[in-house]
């Protein structure tokens, strides 16, 4: 049979697009001399079954159309041009390259010196040239059929004020779940299974934030150590779902997962890594962008040979370049329009917003401008990890309107307060009430603060109260990796113990952290497994631990006391609009003459300036007014809601708090973390009575707003 002739095709869209009659191919490269499309029968093949030179070029986009080709076709690129690293040019046609716009990949990356454009044994390092072919060792790009029956799927569009996020790992969350069918554990299908969805909805979770699911590779170093890149922050393709999480090998499985989660009212947020790729610095492999157009996609130093590294991985995507920015924006839109995801958490987001001759963080960067004006992306949830490793990269509170942020200050301040550090009461007060010091500017709101105490990167909640030091020896880096400043406290014994007093203290501290998280103004984020007491045995950087150390243990999940506590806290949060405000509290009198936020000492008097400035003070009581919340009746009128009283005591000793007067003469106790299940004893207490607040505990009380004088 005569091979089909490659026709001219079109320069848009980029990547491989099936139209029902054939496939259009388009690839951007501004400095290439020639571009060849290679087709393969099997993913492991090292020899192409057909090769086509793309002779058509529109601007810097090379394109061609292959009639009668269709979904399932395997392909890759060979790009010819100068190999001149001192000019930033690193073309090597011996390297089969992954399409940056590939919607799926097939086959595994087998590490070999053949992946490097230079001779790894040559003293000239990357200035040398390597002619070894890598085609049989690299994943192949796949033409996909994007048609899918979404039925009546619609995004939940949960308002920020009602959002509760659970950060989880697709595999780690389900691979040990006894009620998930064995053949789908650790997969997209497993995450969408009935037992998992039932657990998430019972917890009150409204959104799952998935650790990276873009196709990624296991680092060469980790493979040599017999480990894997478990977290996935080593992206290879920005459009392709990671197939190690697929039970079927079909991208439709990801769509099925989204559809089922949506039906349960759960949004799907993706942790995305657009700040760097798996190609590393100038001594890294040539797998895709480096061999296609190194000068367009990566930030290069002034001498052009070396990569600028704001990410700690060796390279940084240059979103100030129009085509690099287009790649990121096209990928984001694809995941919203074709995969129906509801938003994104941007890893090291500061790196994406650098511009100018010195690559400074810039609120007017092309990245921020592109996102803000985009009619698709401006309507989804956008969450920044507001820092990178470059100069001036720590930007907590510094992102523009429309962005929420992982509030690293919240994590650190809440940890330090419950650890018992001096001088932390004033900052805890700010974190509980929405972090106005960080977000009360330029139209931002309390919900822009993603409040969290633990995340994938760092200790789990159980380990936070069990270890003073990191224990990362299993990672193979002599315990040098991972954060050393954890603001953790082991309660007097490092690691596991049988000491009942220490265990009781640790359990109470976990309840304190969870209660603080759910009762703070802002958007709470729970780390998956914290509600089940998950431990990593003191490892605070388990990025390479794809084993039970990182997986969620579901043993006795239904009977775990923290599981019930989180359910209760989420229910309280839903029932108390004063905890879910979208405006900042002022501490000033409202229409009824009462302050919207007031702080009191143990004697029942309002906190004075000297109280706040006393570093030894570790306890206080706050009242959140139930008036002027976002609750409305059918006619849009504001509804008065319950006012909230919260007492925090980080002293080791018990205190007796005189309950302050507010609207009427009683308070109802709703939560007391001194109790094993958080359930208080006596429910109703009168103003002026002294409530016994146990050492290192938190108490929540409420009072109807529509009673009293």
Describe this structure in words.
The chain is an alpha/beta fold and 709 residues long. Among the domains are: 15-142, Immunoglobulins (Immunoglobulin-like); 578-703, Immunoglobulin-like. Helices cover 19% and strands 19% of the residues. It has an 8-stranded parallel β-barrel with strand order 12-13-16-17-20-21-22-23. A 6-stranded antiparallel sheet has the order 24-25-26-31-28-29, covered by helices on one side. Strand 1 (15-18) and strand 2 form a beta hairpin. Helix 13 packs parallel to helix 14. It starts with 14 loop residues before the first strand and ends in a 6-residue tail after the last strand.
Keywords:
15 helices; 6-stranded antiparallel β-sheet; 31 strands; Immunoglobulin-like; 19% helix; single chain; alpha/beta; elongated; 8-stranded parallel barrel; 709 residues
CATH architecture of the domain at 15-142: Sandwich
Structural class: alpha/beta
Average pLDDT reading: 96
Indicate the overall shape. elongated
> How far is the first residue's CA from the last residue's CA?
91 Å
Q: Specify the number of helices.
A: 15
Provide the gyration radius in Å: 27 Å
**CATH level-four homologous superfamily name of the domain at 15-142:** Immunoglobulins
Strand portion: 15-25%
User: Sheet bearing the most strands, described?
Assistant: 8 strands, parallel, barrel
- Unreliable segments (pLDDT under 50, ≥5 consecutive)? none
What is the CATH T-level topology of the domain at 15-142?
Immunoglobulin-like
The tally of strands reads 31
Which CATH first-tier class of the domain at 15-142 would you pick? Mainly Beta
- Percentage of helical residues? 10-25%
For the largest sheet, list the strands in their spatial order: 12-13-16-17-20-21-22-23
